[in-house]
Amino acid sequence: MRIATLTGPRQIEVQSAPNPLISSPSDVLLRVKSVGVCGSDMHYFKTGRIGDQVVQYPFTVGHECSAIVEDIGPAVARVHKGDLVAVDPQLACGQCHQCLAGREHTCINGRFLGCPGQVAGCLSDYIVMPEQCCFPLTSDFTPEAGTLLEPLAIGVYAAEMLPEPQSKSIGILGAGPIGLCLLSALKWRGATRFYVTERRDYRLEVARRVGATWTGNVETSDAVGDILRTEAAGLDAIFECSGDHEAFAQALHLLKPGGTLYLIGIPEGDFISFDSSLMRRKELTVRNVRRQNGCVEKAIDMVSSGHFDVQAFETHHFPLTETQAAFELVEGYSDRVIKAFVTI
Which terminus of the chain faces fewer neighbouring Cβ atoms within 10 Å, N or C? Predict the structure, then answer.
């Protein structure tokens, strides 16, 4: 089979590799149809690492995908040959104290698709995943819609952290795919007051299409001041989706006393800093958001019920042989890209 593998910083080559084989009764052999290029993939592409997860070249990344079931192990019952499935990239053990507490996304034995030192990614013709990671989709799903379920599930999980969103004033800093998925999920939960900031006007246009009630460009306007002139007391909650250090500082100024900052974006460095005096005086809460924690089926329901605008995200398609170009496009925010898909 073909694989698109990182061979060095900003270098992707399409190579040949043996087809993967079913080795467990619960395994599913998948023929990959579509792969989304994610922001975390970009960290590996540009710097070869996220924190202590360091790429040992060559390595195949990619974790957002949909696929066709090619074959199944003898114990598999939920999916069948020929099914289009969404793939949850989290491989949890189901037995550790975190899994038993309902926190499979922080499984102490967990492995993740496309994560260095864990499992090779899905930028390939075939992968094998356990049945628990495969979610069958109805015939109205396209492969691209199935691929978007992974970032959407992160948005759903993050949105569920905020109690009574319909009564809250909410900031979303960063209108990339995760920020837009979160916006969609919060709207699905009944939220109505959204303040979205971003550096790129075209992404703010998409945010308004998805449901933002207010948008501002942090480079060409006083977005923080404009929001506080509208919401004099400050915002109830802010979701930081860019990983940008400037956004962290903006969030502290925008939050009202007692507000909560949710961190979703991944910074390029290992350390971030906050104004501790301001945080203390306002008694702010900071929560981290990690992956999707069992929200794939809820994301499927959201799409099936017509509450997610797939076409707003689906901007670019590349064949596997042009994976390098897909990553370069996303890195440069070129051609109004929201989500680039590698079609296999």
Answer: N
CB neighbours of residue 161 within 10 Å: 14
CB atoms within 10 A of CB 240: 24
> Which pLDDT tens digits describe the chain residue by residue (344 residues)?
999 999 999 999 999 999 999 999 999 999 999 999 999 999 999 999 998 899 999 999 999 999 999 999 999 999 999 999 999 999 999 999 999 999 999 999 999 999 999 999 999 999 999 999 999 999 999 999 999 999 999 999 999 999 999 999 999 999 999 999 999 999 999 999 999 999 999 999 999 999 999 999 999 999 999 999 999 999 999 999 999 889 999 999 999 999 999 999 988 878 888 899 999 999 999 999 999 999 999 999 999 999 999 999 999 999 999 999 999 999 999 999 999 999 99
Strands 27-36 and 53-54: unpaired
Q: CA-CA distance, 90 to 112, in Å (whole number)? A: 5
Quote the CATH superfamily of domain 153-288: NAD(P)-binding Rossmann-like Domain (3.40.50.720)
pTM score: 0.96
